[in-house]
């Protein structure tokens, strides 16, 4: 099952709970882009860097050599737990900037597909239904208004101990939406056969419930 959508629409939290309810594996594809972004930032890349051809090759190399392990809540990059580091807004913003690169996207493609083993998979991101898993039995495009999403991200960042303010968050979110939607490679838009679900007025658990019902209707077996 694929759950795509814009930033802070809730796709990660929903996908994780749905995967647990179904006993499926879970892929947060944004983490892969964030891990490469973290390496770029650590290598000193500026936020406004214009990507050269060599930069794109460097990104693809980082992606190909990505030594990552997921252990519960931990995200181990070369054995270092970077679970918190990759959640910083500047990492999300850099992830969105490098994600325009076709070279990087294709370097990450097979790694994402390798998660589809065993009973089933719930994958969340931007292009799970449109590019990475075009034959998925259920595709959902999760939306929520920009204001609701900024507030959700605000609460989430504060709970993790980061500082945040709503004005900057709303601006970052609108910029990121525009960049993700307007790029030529795998732009943020619902797959043709995706169901659009607006969670603006739903709690997390209500959203999970709707998704599980959609899955039962579409695919059965639960
Ligand atoms: O959680 P949030 O939606 O803020 O971000 P994320 O899913 O972790 O993704 C970070 C950035 O990586 C996004 O803004 C996208 O530009 C990019 N991304 C992508 O291009 N394709 C994916 N399948 C997942 C993420
Ligand atoms: O992965 P994405 O960036 O789309 O968002 P997320 O990190 O899964 O969700 C952002 C925050 O919104 C989390 O703290 C979720 O628990 C929360 N959320 C919510 O309050 N109501 C929903 N219907 C869905 C998510």
From TrEMBL:
Binding site residues for ATP: 5-13
InterPro entries assigned: Cytidylate_kin (IPR003136), Cytidylate_kinase_dom (IPR011994), P-loop_NTPase (IPR027417)
Reaction(s) this enzyme catalyzes, per UniProt: CMP + ATP = CDP + ADP; dCMP + ATP = dCDP + ADP
NCBIfam families tied to this protein: cmk (TIGR00017)
GO molecular function: ATP binding; CMP kinase activity; dCMP kinase activity
Keyword Cytoplasm on entry: yes
Primary localization: cytoplasm
Gene Ontology CC: one annotated term: cytoplasm
Subcellular location: Cytoplasm
Protein name, UniProt field: Cytidylate kinase
Family: Belongs to the cytidylate kinase family. Type 1 subfamily.
Any GO BP: pyrimidine nucleotide metabolic process
Pfam family, one: Cytidylate_kin
Record carries keyword Aminoacyl-tRNA synthetase: no
Provenance organism: Hydromonas duriensis
Domain Cytidylate kinase per the UniProt entry, residue ranges: 2-215
E.C. designation(s): 2.7.4.25
Domain of life of the source: Bacteria
Keywords: ATP-binding, Cytoplasm, Kinase, Nucleotide-binding, Transferase
